[in-house]
Amino acid sequence: MKQDWYATLVRHMLLLVAGCLLVGMLTGHYGWCLAAGLAVYLAWTLKQLLRLHRWLREHQPDQPPPDGYGLWGEVFDSIYHMQRRDQRARGRLQAVIDRVQESTAALRDAVIMLDADGNLEWWNRAAETLLGLKTPQDSGQPVTNLIRHPRFKEYFAHEQYAEPLEIPSPVNDRLRVQFLITRYGNNEHLMLVRDVTRIHQLEQMRKDFVANVSHELRTPLTVITGYLETLLDNVENVNPRWTRALQQMEQQGVRMQTLLNDLLLLAKLEATDYPSDNLPVAVTPLLQSIVSDARALSGPRNQTISLDIENDVLLKGSEAELRSAFSNLVFNAVKYTPEQGTIRVRCWADAQGAHLRVQDSGIGIDAKHLPRLTERFYRVDSSRASNTGGTGLGLAIVKHVLLRHRATLEISSVPGRGSLFTCHFSAVQVVIR
Ligand code: ADP
């Protein structure tokens, strides 16, 4: 095609030159005739160029190009067809965008797009009802100016979005919303917000039920164990056939009491997000007292229990909760380590925060159990649990306490070699002395 036009152009030029030379032969002015002929051709070419320029600048969409002759006509038509093709492609793209926007607008979940700085770019209708965003006033506003809940600010600033966040809706306290944030493109954020009020209410009902049942069972159980204790105190007045039965009843009663206490503690931990007594807790004396209790628990088993404090840290939080979490870890190490074993408790701090590690040379845990270990009542081996008298709630308590203290629990273990439980406290929770 291009080659055709090249040949046509050459033919036209040759014809022009031949025509000029012919007129030159008749008039005797070759040079002038050639110059005049080329000047006319140049003028015509410039005129076509100007027409093209005017059409490109002023034409309305769909207005066909001016008529052109020869190569210029071809150029006009090609540009016109290219524009039409572009328009059609743009139309198709716009239709896709419209459909995506329509379907996202119809979603019951809120979809919000934020730029790399966390400013609002686009959101659907559900975002207006769930979060109270206003179109178009809020466009370009930082999201943390509009969703002011402290936990959201902290969650957004930390940029750790693996776990979703659940908070009350900014427009209605009775609505519970769950945030899921994903990063895409140039560090832009896509935020999905779901109404999880119903799930939250069911979860709340479950928690209330467990807390109420535990609470109601506590009084009758105290009466029963109290009487059993009195009977055992006066064992000489009891028929000897009943002595063993009474002892076992008292043992199981005490076990039930521990279970109820653990359930109530868990219910209390779940009731609020963060501990109310957020005071600096000195870790060194706390660990010293836990380790001395652990030595007492270990008794005649000849275990070596050592404590290494590398940094004397203070942790912001509740002393009672931290004591409960750390003692659960240390006492578990004692319980699940055979005689002559070693248990090492270490505490240190670095740029990431403070760390507490309980290492034992005990029976260890198979890797397949590790992900579920902090679930309530999860036991590696139920017969083992009944030997140690555990409730199966210890690690669930540890997980909840750590969650409330902005900390995480890392567990690694090799069966037969021992286990390693490490609590990582974030730097904001730590005061180093
Ligand atoms: P329990 O009251 O049964 O000890 P936990 O929640 O404290 O309940 O622990 C859950 C399970 O994890 C235990 O039943 C035990 O099998 C396992 N486990 C916990 N700590 C250790 C440890 N240091 N070594 C080996 N197994 C452990």
UniProtKB/TrEMBL annotation:
Localisation: Cell membrane
GO MF entries: ATP binding; phosphoprotein phosphatase activity; phosphorelay sensor kinase activity
GO CC annotations, alphabetized: plasma membrane
Pfam families xrefs: HATPase_c, HisKA, PAS, PhoR
Record flagged with keyword Ligase: no
Record's keyword terms, sorted: ATP-binding, Cell membrane, Kinase, Membrane, Nucleotide-binding, Phosphate transport, Phosphoprotein, Transferase, Transmembrane, Transmembrane helix, Transport, Two-component regulatory system
E.C. number: 2.7.13.3
TM regions (residue ranges): 12-44
Keyword Glycosyltransferase among record annotations: no
SUPFAM superfamilies: ATPase domain of HSP90 chaperone/DNA topoisomerase II/histidine kinase (SSF55874), Homodimeric domain of signal transducing histidine kinase (SSF47384), PYP-like sensor domain (PAS domain) (SSF55785)
Ranges where the Histidine kinase domain occurs: 212-429
GO biological process: cellular response to phosphate starvation; phosphate ion transport; regulation of DNA-templated transcription
Catalysed reaction, written as an equation: ATP + protein L-histidine = ADP + protein N-phospho-L-histidine
EC top class named in words: transferase
Domain annotation PAS: ranges: 89-150
Purpose: Member of the two-component regulatory system PhoR/PhoB involved in the phosphate regulon genes expression. PhoR may function as a membrane-associated protein kinase that phosphorylates PhoB in response to environmental signals.
Name of the protein in its database record: Phosphate regulon sensor protein PhoR
Species per Swiss-Prot/TrEMBL record: Pseudomonas baltica
